[in-house]
C-alpha cells in the first residue's frame, strides 16, 4: 500500500521539499534523513541515486550544524563572568560562527533545488555519493 502511495505522489521530490522546509524547522530534516535512508535501496535506478544523495546531504548538514552548535554553546559558556575585552573577543568569534552557519545552509538549498530539477526529469545522478554543490 505505501509503495503505491510513494509512486503516486513521488517520494523523491517530497523528501527534497522536506529538506528545504527543514531549513526553517530543523527537526523535520531528521525525518527526511530517515525516509531517504529507508528508501535508498528501493525503487528505480534514478530514485535510488536521489535517495542516496538526499541521505548524504541531510546527514552531512546535520553533522555540520551539530558542530557549529557545540562551538556556539562553548563560546556562550566562556562568556560568563569575563571582563569586557574578553567578551568582545568572544562576541566576534560567536558572530563568525553564526555567519559560518549560512554556508552549509546555502549548500543544502542549492543541492535540493538542483535535485528537484533532476528528479522532475527523472534523471539518474551520476555520482550520488559526491558532496559537490552541483550534483550531476
Question: Any overview of this molecule?
Answer:
The chain is mainly alpha-helical and 136 residues long. The protein has one domain (2-120). The protein is 75% helix and 0% strand. It contains 6 helices and no strands. Helix 2 packs parallel to helix 4, helix 2 packs antiparallel against helix 6 (102-120) and helix 3 (27-39) packs antiparallel against helix 4 (45-78).
* Number of helical regions: 6
* Helix/strand structural class: mainly alpha
Largest β-sheet summary = none
Mind telling me the C-alpha Rg?
18 Å
Distance between the termini: 32 Å
List the secondary-structure elements in sequence, H or E.
HHHHHH
Helix amount? over 70%
Instruction: Classify the beta-strand content into a percent band.
Output: under 5%
Mean pLDDT: 86
Overall number of strands: 0
What are the low-pLDDT stretches, counting only 5+ consecutive residues below 50?
A: none
Per the principal axes of the C-alpha atoms, what is the gross shape? elongated
Number of domains: 1
